[in-house]
Structure formats: C-alpha cells, structure tokens
Amino acid sequence: MSTRSNRRTFLQQMGLLSAASFLPLGACTMKSTHKYKIGLQLFTVRDAMEKDVIGTLTKAREMGYQDLEIYGYNSEKNMFYGYEAKDFKKVLEDVELTTTSGHYGFHPYFNASDDELNRFVDQCIKGAYQLDQKYITWPWLDPESRSIEAFEKLVGMLNRIGERVHKAGLSFAYHNHNFEFIDHDGRNGYDLILKETDPSMVKLQLDLYWVCNASKLNPVELIAKQPDRFTMWHIKDMDKITRDYTELGNGSIDYIDMFAKISTSGLQYYYLEQGGNYAQNSMKSIADSIQYFKKNLQQLL
User: Fold this and answer.
1) Of 61, 64, 84, 144, which has the fewest Cβ atoms less than 10 A away?
2) Which residues pair with 138 in a beta bridge?
C-alpha cells in the first residue's frame, strides 16, 4: 500500500477525512528563491507564546521565518498552544506559516505498555495530520532513561513507533542532545541508534549545537556516516566561554566552514533555535539570529 493510501486509511479511521486531506504533504508552502524555508523551533520563544500566540507568530513571520517546529502537544485534548488542532492550523494559515515537524512528548511513555504507547502515537498522528506536518519527532529522554541499557530498549521503541507512523503516511525522527554521546565503556547511545534502528523508519534530527557541545565527532563526520538519514537540523550557536546557547554569530561554532563541508543530501528542513541565555529577550534573539543567518549562512544551504 502506498504512503498516500496509508494516510487516507488512517484519516478515515480517525474521522478526519476531508478534501484538504488529499493534498500532498507540504502542498501549502510558500515560494522561495532558496531551496529550504527558514524554520524556527518555537521552544525558543516559549515565554512569548505563553503570553500572545498570534502576536508572537506574526512577529516571527515579519522577521522572515516561514516554517515552524512545534512543541507541547496536548494529546488528551488534541490542542496546540491552547487551540484545538484545526483552529491552530487556521492561525498558521492566517499568518502565512507552515509547520513541518513537531516535538511530541514520548518520554513519559518510556515504560508504558504497548497499548498505552500506541494510543499516544495515534493521537500524535492525528495532531500532525491536522497541521499538515510531515514529521513526528521524539525530542527528549529523562535522566533515568539514559543508561546504555535504556538506549538498548529505546532503539526497539523507535523502530516500532517509526513503523506505526510510517504506515500512517508520515515520517518519524529522533532528536539528540548531548547525553547520547556519553561513553559507556566504549559504547554510546547515538551509535546504537545509528546501527540498530531501521533507516527507512527512523530518521534523525541532528542538533548541530549539541554535537559540537558534547562530542569529539563533529557534525560533518557524523552526517557522513549515513547522510540520507539526517533529514532535519537544529541550528544554534554556542557561547565562547560558558558553552551555553547564544544568538547565531555570537558564539564559537563556525557554521560558514561547517556548511561548506557538510552533506545536505538528506536534508529536508532546518530550524533555528536558542533554548535560553538570551542577550535581551527571546524575540530579540530570534530577530538577531535570522538576520545573521540570512546574511551569512542561508546561501550556503
């Protein structure tokens, strides 16, 4: 069965089938002279989103952001940022933004039953459909789930979730931090993910900052191992002294050199992000970062 047929079948089962459902994923995108839309991970402006969703999104669009990665899905109520999924989609349409990926909260289900996990996955699929997202992304592991034994369990979960998401016509990815690269007697979690997850079912969202922060292996070398698996990137800079987040162009990561060497053969989307440590405030930071990005980096991708 084709991906499109899988999508239609799932929509019928969830009662979400409509004329819009037959549009190809990503059909409602904005034209650009560049290959990729400039994305923003909304966690960067989480404080502003809590105060004024529409105002924050409008300002981000005015700065030049075109695409979003969301976080904080309420699966019980099928809501994003206090809006029902269909209503949040309308908000995005009104401000001329798309969303191609979401960070969905899988970590509380690490020790859940298969039935509980499957129900949550299906709710995530429902939410992603209603926003016309392509990717459902696993973003985080709690500290107690970072042993090598936990990663051995994780790879099995990722494969099962990836298969379920793939059958529904969407894609699934895993997002890294620094803890995946911690050495456990010659082994680490990221190597397990690379080697033991199905490349067709589990794609990788590479956080370039966290690789530079935590690993002796640089992003260029890491992507070269399996270039077509790294379908999404997080782009953020690292403070030269504290190694904390900082605005693009203010830190120690030489993205000009990196982008001149890195493989983009698998890249579909990227998102600028800054998790904190703002020079003034989160909105000023995303304004400064996109200005630097458009001037110095966008043409390299």
Assistant:
1) 144
2) 174
Token pair for 289 = 């970062």
Tell how far CA 25 is from the center of its chain: 16
Strands 83-84 and 79-80 come out as: antiparallel
Strand partners, 80: 83
Contact in structure between 165 and 102 (CB atoms under 8 Å)? no
**In this structure, what is the dihedral angle of CA atoms 84, 130, 139, 118, given to the nearest 10 degrees?**
100
d(Cα 203, Cα 136) in Å, to the nearest integer?
Answer: 10
Q: How are beta strands 98-103 and 135-138 bridged, if at all?
A: parallel
Using the structure block, give the residue that is written with the tokens 């839309």: 37
Q: Distance between CA 293 and CA 158 in Å, rounded?
A: 33
> How far lies 228's CA from each of 82, 139, 199, 209, in Å?
36, 20, 9, 20
Angle between helices 114-130 and 3-14 (to 10 degrees): 100
For the chain, what is the largest distance between any 2 Cα atoms, rounded to a whole number of angstroms? Answer: 54
Tell me the pLDDT of the chain (301 aa) as tens digits: 555 555 555 555 655 554 344 333 343 444 557 899 999 999 999 999 999 999 999 999 999 999 999 999 999 999 999 999 999 999 999 999 999 999 999 999 999 999 999 999 999 999 999 999 999 999 999 999 999 999 999 999 999 999 999 999 999 999 999 999 999 999 999 999 999 999 999 999 999 999 999 977 899 999 999 999 999 999 999 999 999 999 999 999 999 999 999 999 999 999 999 999 999 999 999 999 999 999 999 999 9
Helices (H), the chain: 3-14, 46-51, 53-63, 85-94, 114-130, 148-167, 189-196, 208-214, 219-225, 255-261, 282-296
Q: How far apart are CA 20 and CA 43, in angstroms?
A: 28
Q: Are 99 and 67 a contacting pair, CB within 8 Å?
A: yes
